[in-house]
């Protein structure tokens, strides 16, 4: 970390605010991309009373606090997740800036972090990782390798192959051994994207740390998961997905098993953010 001169301090404050603003945009992406809506228009509205949100009600972090977490018009509670995503993005942006300073790597890793935050929350809500995010992400990650001094384009290309390939191998082995689908294709493309951004050298640490964290979080969640009722929508979505993907037939799973899968999925999601933490390794 650089010494905390007034210049670095004010730059970090600026980066934090920039991160919060980007986080506010990510909230829009998280909400609209899975629904197939435009992320640029129309302006954000209250989901309940549909009153457009004015610019001064849309200041990241502050507005939520000033409005007391409620819509200014109909007083419907606004989820704490919105300011949380803004705060998380702001902290990640500031952390990356303090690690890499004024280098091309900083904005590149901001992009990667922003993608990971978006993917994490979409995956949490819908159990999908949209191709419209991960596929362009692979391209951006590859192109960015030309601007990062400690990486070559070959590292990036091999990262795409190693990232996508290793998960594909794990998924196929799992399917072969258990005759069940374990991992979605979305995860494979996401790891290929991470390989593009971080190079092949990062793939093993990312998988290793992710599975460690994933197992720990998974164990915690599975116990709690057994107590929760199963959302029926998820069951239906799963059945539809299986039919559409040409799977043998739609099987309705036992609630316990389903929730277990959800628990594992969530565990995987929380670890989606691990790559950002390993940047400094
Ligand atoms: Zn409202």
Tell me about this structure.
With about 280 residues, the protein is an all-alpha fold. It has 2 domains: about 1-100, no CATH class; about 110-280, no CATH class. It is about 65% helix and about 0% strand. It has helices at about 5-30, 60-65, 80-100, 105-125, 130-145, 155-180, 185-200, 205-225, 230-245, 255-270, 275. The radius of gyration is 20 Å and the shape is globular. It starts with 5 loop residues before the first helix and ends with a helix. The model is unreliable at about 225-270 (pLDDT under 50). The structure holds zinc ion (ZN). Zinc ion binds next to loops.
List the helices and strands and how they pair.
Blueprint: H1 6-32, H2 62-66, H3 81-100, H4 105-126, H5 131-144, H6 153-178, H7 185-198, H8 203-225, H9 232-244, H10 255-270, H11 274-277
The structure holds zinc ion.
Portion in beta strands: under 5%
Principal-axis shape equals: globular
Distinct ligand kinds: zinc ion
Number of domains: 2
Order of helices and strands: HHHHHHHHHHH
Total helical elements: 11
Low-confidence stretches: 223-270
Q: Into which percent range does the helicity of residues fall?
A: 55-70%
Distance between the termini: 14 Å
- Let me know the largest β-sheet: none
Structural class: mainly alpha
The beta-strand count equals 0
**Gyration radius, rounded:** 20 Å
Specify the oligomeric state: single chain
Mean pLDDT: 77
């Amino acid at each position: 970390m650089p010494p905390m001169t007034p210049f670095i301090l004010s730059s970090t404050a600026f980066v934090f605010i920039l991160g919060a603003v980007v986080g506010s945009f990510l909230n829009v992406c998280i909400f609209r991309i899975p629904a197939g809506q435009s992320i640029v228009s129309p302006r954000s509205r209250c989901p309940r009373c549909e009153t457009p949100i004015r610019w001064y009600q849309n200041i990241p972090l502050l507005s939520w606090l000033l409005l007391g977490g409620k819509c200014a018009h109909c007083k419907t509670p606004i989820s704490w997740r919105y300011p949380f995503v803004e705060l998380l993005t702001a902290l990640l942006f500031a952390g990356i800036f303090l690690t890499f300073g004024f280098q091309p790597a900083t904005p590149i890793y901001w992009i990667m972090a922003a993608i990971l935050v978006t993917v994490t929350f979409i995956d949490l809500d819908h159990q999908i990782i949209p191709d419209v995010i991960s596929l362009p992400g692979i391209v951006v990650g590859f192109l960015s390798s030309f601007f990062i001094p400690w990486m070559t384009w070959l590292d990036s290309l091999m990262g795409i192959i190693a990232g996508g390939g290793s998960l594909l191998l794990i998924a196929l082995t799992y399917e072969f051994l258990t005759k069940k689908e374990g991992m979605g294709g979305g995860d494979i493309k996401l790891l290929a994207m991470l390989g593009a951004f971080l190079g092949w050298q990062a793939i093993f640490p990312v998988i290793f740390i992710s599975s460690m964290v994933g197992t720990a979080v998974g164990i915690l969640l599975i116990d709690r998961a057994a107590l929760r009722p199963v959302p029926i929508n998820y069951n239906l979505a799963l059945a539809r997905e299986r039919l559409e993907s040409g799977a043998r037939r739609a099987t309705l799973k036992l609630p316990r098993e389903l929730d277990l899968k959800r628990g594992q999925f969530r565990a995987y999601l929380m670890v989606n953010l691990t790559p950002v933490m390993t940047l400094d390794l």
